[in-house]
Amino acid sequence: MSGRTESAPASESAPSSASAGGGRSLRRAGAVVGAAVAVLALWAVAVPVAGIEVAGDRGGTVGPIGPVSIAASALGAGAAGWALLAVLERLTGRPGPIWTAVAAAVLVLSLMGPVISAAGTASMIVLLAAHLVVGAVVILGLAPTARRR
């Protein structure tokens, strides 16, 4: 064996744009799923462990807010954030800062939901925490994946 090392061909050593895009999509999907997992963990601590009844006004009727609703809301918010980021990447030269500002504003506005519709103080605190957890995971997970045009 000679002391010579062979380098990999350029196509193997440098990531292709397709694989870079695939990695970005995987990170984005991880942020969306991570938001759902994080909020489900919060719900599991609040409801079965701490015994808090999480309930809210649902179109005139007060009812419990269960894990399916919590997870679906987190997945929906994360998917909407991902979609907005993808649109901004096509329309603007600096999608990251714009998306982050919009996402933060949406998070702040979303906090009005629990304040207005939660059935009791404990429910309001859990739901406010749920909004903050989802917002934090989505914003911190998606913002770094923004790419310039």
Structure description:
With about 150 residues, this protein is mainly alpha-helical. It has a domain at about 30-55 and about 65-145. It has helices at about 10-15, 15-50, 65-90, 95-110, 110-115, 120-140, and strands at about 55-60, 60-65. It has a two-stranded antiparallel ribbon with strand order 1-2. Keywords: Membrane, Transmembrane, Transmembrane helix.
Largest sheet features: 2 strands, antiparallel
Order of helices and strands: HHEEHHHH
Give, in spatial order, the strands making up the sheet with the most strands.
1-2
Shape: elongated
Number of strand elements: 2
**Helix count, per DSSP?**
6
What's the helical proportion of residues? over 70%
Rg from Cα: 20 Å
Specify the structural class: mainly alpha
Distance from N terminus to C terminus (CA atoms, Å) equals: 47 Å
Low-confidence stretches: 1-18
Look at the structure and give the mean pLDDT. Answer: 89
Strand content: 5-15%
Biased composition (Low complexity): 7-19
Region (Disordered): 1-22
Transmembrane segments: 29-52, 64-86, 98-116, 122-143
Keywords: Membrane, Transmembrane, Transmembrane helix
Which SSEs are present, and which pair or pack?
Elements: H1 10-13, H2 17-49, E1 55-58, E2 61-64, H3 67-91, H4 95-110, H5 112-117, H6 121-142
Antiparallel strand pairs: 1-2
Helix pairs in contact: 2-3, 2-6, 3-4, 3-6, 4-6
Region (Disordered): 1-22
InterPro entries: DUF6069
Keywords: Membrane, Transmembrane, Transmembrane helix
